[in-house]
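Researcher: Go.
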Amino acid sequence: VEYYVNDAGEQVVKLGHSVLKDGEKVYEGEYIDELNKKFGKIQDVREVGEKSANYILENIIKKTVKEKMRIEFDEWTSEKELQKKGYDNRAVEMLKKKGFTYESDGALWLKTTEFGDDKDRVLVKSDGKNAYIAGDCGYMLDKIERGFDKLIMGLGADHHGYVSRLKAVAKMLGFHGDFRIILSQLVRLVKDGKEVRMSKRAGNVVYIDDLIEEVGHDVARFFFLMYSPDTHMNFDLGLAKEQSQKNPVFYVQYAHARICSILQKSLSANNKQESASNDINLSLLSHEKELDLIKELNKFPELIEEISESYEAHRLPHYALKLADKFHSFYDACRVIDEENPELSKARLSLVNSARIVLAETLRLIGVSAPKSM
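Model: Structure:
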């Protein structure tokens, strides 16, 4: 799993102007004010931008991702470092040799339309500088040379126009493996029934670490994963902070805690009675709610297999909710520990334990805790 750091090009210059608060500033916000205090006395715009970008990466992004979001990346790949190693220029030369470029209006163009793009793209501008797509070509070449046969790229929805050109670049450079691009839509934060707007340019920014601080890691992670990346998300702060079964995270975690409580009680009950046999007669599970729970549990292996192919991780939280719902319905309808019917109790306890295993594993895959008590 790799995080690609856009620490080169015009974005860095824009950041530099913003930190210096000059006439070409683009971004505003508390983080810009903090960077201005640290680097505002430096005169060179690019130097300010590079120092600011590095500070943001090391002290904000990496810290937040690892400590708050609890996401581990195997690699942090720098666009600037790839350029220093010459990957973008090597990719340009390779594309030239393969015959995928042509000159027009003093610029070097890439024949991306031959591979499904809606128009050809400028690879080297008329002033001799590499265009933005040259960096994408360099990064693709880097990944190809590292020997990957499957690539999954995550982009913001505002980069939807890049999908066809990136796939064209991959084919031109000789990648013939599985290449998927997942687009993520913006998040709409709702507070007190009103939308809280998020904009890097306006300075009205909601930081993920502040959000996690307010609602908790489990809730934030579960809520974000409930939505398919290509779906606009409404993050309801009121619901996220509610400690009731209206909150989907509370509902699922409460089901797991309830299961653990039942199993703990069964240990005490078993100490008081001797069973004639350790065999469990699962054929006794014939109640409608028992069968509904069993059917839901049986869906789990196939679900995992499907997600491993489709990458539709949002199906996991929804499965957890449905499984919790089936368990609560079962528990309300069926008495689990019945001293007068020990064989049925053993069968039901076996079912309850199966529900615990699957629910705990689902929460583990989501990255959310499975409390034993609440």
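Model: Residues 271-277 have pLDDT under 50 and may be disordered.
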